[in-house]
Specification:
By secondary structure, the chain is an alpha+beta fold. The protein has eleven helices and 14 strands.
Length: about 300
């Protein structure tokens, strides 16, 4: 099937020009980033915008930079660039883990982190990793003002975010802690390059004694969108021996018990809970190794 006719097409050179095109649009409009999800929806006519605003010429939305200690990933930064520049992300390597395993090669070459977060599909990797890392998103509101929103307040549920009409996501911002910290992400899919049946991202910050001072444990592949597990996080910050794999497994098991899963035609809810425990344990071990500076972790 082909997309419905598109009446207007804009290719702005700046974020402000894009915002103004959205405000001036007659009928339904869509921002076009990588297009990996949007084009499928348009071709199936699930979405039939009258106007498309193509963001691919806006250089200010591209790249990874550090200013005043804040790591900023432009919304139009492609997965392949995030995957290749893991060192630039400091303790937030979970985002690189996710980017390196999103879809297939074509998706990684075209897809963008901002497009994924704005879409917030329940089978997307980037929202899980961003939630695990405690990122913030910088938004150009329709009023012309910019606002920084914590990822917990931005991701409101599957296919739902804090973006209103004409709002434009500018960047993903990450504030590294002063202490040793690291993150990790992994998904499990039915076949290679598949969307995650379950994806797990974790972030750990260690104190001077080597114990976990702060933790975030996020799970995705859920019909409600990615969620954190307060039970797992509480266990991790309760003086746990981070060298005890069984203790780390108990944290992942707590997440599996807390987060509700649903069976689908391919995978049972019980097996999804098993995946949360298994992947969660593996990512906790990896995050501990990374926080301690282990090579190739």
């Amino acid at each position: 099937m082909y997309p419905a006719p598109i009446e207007k097409y804009h290719r702005p050179k700046s974020a402000e020009e894009a915002r103004q095109a959205a405000i001036d649009a007659q009928g339904e409009y869509m921002y076009f980033a990588g297009g990996m999800s949007l084009m499928q929806a348009m071709k199936s006519r699930m979405i039939s915008p009258d106007c498309v605003i193509d963001l691919n010429d806006i250089d200010e939305l591209k790249g990874i930079s550090t200013t005043d200690g804040i790591i900023r990933i432009g919304a139009m930064t492609r997965y392949r660039d995030i995957a290749e520049k893991a060192d630039a992300l400091g303790p937030f390597q979970a985002l690189s883990d996710a980017a390196a395993n999103v879809g297939d090669r074509q998706v990684r070459n075209r897809g963008t982190v901002g497009g994924s977060l704005a879409w917030n599909h329940y089978h997307a990797c980037s929202p899980i990793a961003a939630l695990a890392c405690g990122a913030s998103v910088n938004i150009l509101r329709s009023s012309g003002t910019s606002e920084t929103v914590a990822i917990d307040d931005f991701l409101l549920g599957a296919l739902t975010t804090d973006l209103d009409d004409a709002d434009l996501l500018l960047s993903v911002d990450l504030d590294p802690p002063d202490a040793a910290a690291a993150s990790a992400y992994r998904k499990w899919g039915i076949v290679k390059d598949a969307v995650p049946v379950i994806g797990v991202g974790v972030f750990l910050e260690l104190d001077s004694s080597g114990l976990c001072a702060r933790a975030r444990f996020a799970v995705g592949g859920l019909p409600t969108g990615p969620q954190r597990s307060p039970d797992a996080e509480e266990r991790l910050t309760g003086g746990l021996d981070l060298d005890d794999t069984a203790a780390l497994r108990s944290c992942a098991a707590a997440a599996a018990a807390q987060i509700e899963t649903e069976s689908d035609p391919w995978i049972s809810a019980d097996y999804k809970q098993h995946l949360i425990e298994r992947l969660g344990t593996e990512m906790l071990v990896k995050a501990v190794q990374r926080a301690r500076g282990a090579e190739n972790a």
